[in-house]
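Sequence only, no structure available. Ideas?
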Amino acid sequence: MTNLPTDNKPELTLIIPVYEEEHNIVPFIEEVRKNISPSYIALIIFDHNHDSTLKKLHELTDNKTNIRFVKNMYGTGVINAFKTGFALAKTKYIVPIMADLSDMPETVNIMHTIIRQGYDLVIASRYVKDGAKIGGARIKNFLSALANKSLNFLTRIPTHDFTNAFIMYKKTVLDNIEIQSTGGFEITMEIIAKAYMLDYSITEVPTINRDRAAGKSKFALWKWIYKYLYWYFFILLCSVRKRFQIFRNLDHI
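Reply:
I predicted one. C-alpha cells follow.
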C-alpha cells in the first residue's frame, strides 16, 4: 500500500490522518477532487488494519493512482501519521488536511498560489479577516483563540494561528526540522517555531474551519494541554532569542 507513483509527479502531497472515518472519507475525497486544482497525491494514513476507514479502500483507490492508503509507520496517533506522511512525501509541497470535513479543500488552491510566490510555510488561519471557526466545544474554541492571538501579539511571528494543522510546507523545510513532539496537533506549534528560528518565510491565508461532519472528535484537549503549554512557552522563548540575535547583529553594523 505504500508504493508511491514516480511518473507524472504531482505538485502536492495531501497528508490525511484517519481513525474510524468510514462515514467521512468518501465525501471528503469527493470534496478534494472537486475543489483542489493543483495535481496531488493523497496519502490516507491509518493506524491499524481493523480501522473502519479501510472499508472504503477499493471504492476510493480503484483506477485512482493518486489515492493511497498507507499504514502508520511510527506507531499510532495523529502525530505519527504526520511523520509517516512527511517521510513518504516526494513532492515539492506538502499539506496535512483532516478527513472529517473540518478543513476547506478550496483553501489549498490559495495556499498553493501564495507558496509559489516564494514563501516556505503558508498557514491556513481561522483568526484573521475572512477566517472563522464554526462549531465545536466553546471552551476549546476560547482557549484556542486566546493562545493563538496572544502568541501573535507577543512574538510578532507572522501568523495568528499556531495550532491549525492545515499548513502548506515546502518539503525542504520539513527535511531540515527534527520533530520532537510526542502528543498530537501541537506538532504544528513546534514546526512553526523552528521554521521561524531557521529564517524560513511564513505567511497565512484565511480559512473557515467547520466542526466534523460525522463521528466523534479524536482531539484530546485535556490530555494534550500540557504539551501545548510547553510549545507555547517554547515559541515565546524562540521569539526572545530571535530578537536578541537581531540586536546583536545591529551592534556589528
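The first helix runs from residue 25 to 35.
Hope that gets you unstuck.
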